[in-house]
Amino acid sequence: MKRLNLVVLASGRGSNFKAIQANIDAGRLSAEIKLVLSDHLNAPVLTLANQAQVPALALAPADYADRAGFDAALLAEICKVDCDLIVLAGYMRVLGEAFIEAAPAPIINIHPSLLPSFPGLHAQGQAVAYGVKVSGCTVHLVNHILDGGAIIAQRAVPVLPGDDEDALAARILPVEHELYSDVIQKIAEGKIRLTGQTVTILG
Known about the structure:
Number of helices: 6
Family: Belongs to the GART family.
Organism: Peptococcus niger
Largest sheet: 7 strands, mixed
Order of helices and strands: EHEHEHEHEHEEHEE
Strand content: 15-25%
Radius of gyration: 16 Å
InterPro entries: Formyl_transf_N, Formyl_transf_N_sf, GART
Helix content: 25-40%
GO molecular function: phosphoribosylglycinamide formyltransferase activity
Low-confidence stretches: none
Strand order of the largest sheet: 3-2-1-4-5-6-7
CATH topology of the largest domain: Rossmann fold
Shape: globular
CATH architecture of the largest domain: 3-Layer(aba) Sandwich
Pathway: Purine metabolism; IMP biosynthesis via de novo pathway; N(2)-formyl-N(1)-(5-phospho-D-ribosyl)glycinamide from N(1)-(5-phospho-D-ribosyl)glycinamide (10-formyl THF route): step 1/1
Number of strands: 9
CATH superfamily of the largest domain: Formyl transferase, N-terminal domain
């Protein structure tokens, strides 16, 4: 079984990073996080990475003339390490098309809705406002369309009477943690193949 080398991009608290690293440490996930990159200098995920002895670096978008310049710097850091999979874990910047095309490995993201429903920000709030009875989370390939890449896996979560955005988000989050690691493990086992923008499920 291949041991996947991961680069994690995260903007905030790092709960998905923490869950992935915990599964690696417990021997449930055949992977190693080679680098954590953030677009926020004080993101809590950087502290979590340091505690886990995972290399971590923050790049400030304000230091670059435009998104293309920032993306190029981000890509340069990724290319310094051996990377099989780029994992977006609460990364809140839209990646440019040039970055996606030049990336040295497939890029995956997890989104807190059952795509294609409710893409973008506040997906849980969108679900509550629309009145759906089931929401959930989706792992998908990243392409130039926001939350529009090929779907890899989904898991459903009920929307309960009286839910608000925060309540639904809290119910979805632990399911995100489980699903993301499950998908990464299946990629390591060869049960999921990512080729360009094509997903092949083999088991």
